[in-house]
Hints:
Layout: E1 5-7, H1 8-15, H2 19-35, E2 44-46, H3 47-53
Antiparallel strand pairs: 1-2
Helix pairs in contact: 1-2
Amino acid sequence: MQSDVVRVEEAMTRLDCSRRKAYEVLKCLNDELRAKGFITISGRVPRSYFEKKCRIGVGACGQDTGK
């Protein structure tokens, strides 16, 4: 069964990046959620939010990479 949250190990695999970069992405996403008034837990992001924000052609935290 798949968890409702994405943790750093899965973020590393799905984004094909280092552990440090995966933590940066999760922190950025959590910062966005916190600014919207949500309660967050470090190192975990709701799967639906992660998948929405980290789609192909878009870099960390929704920044366009020009692809």
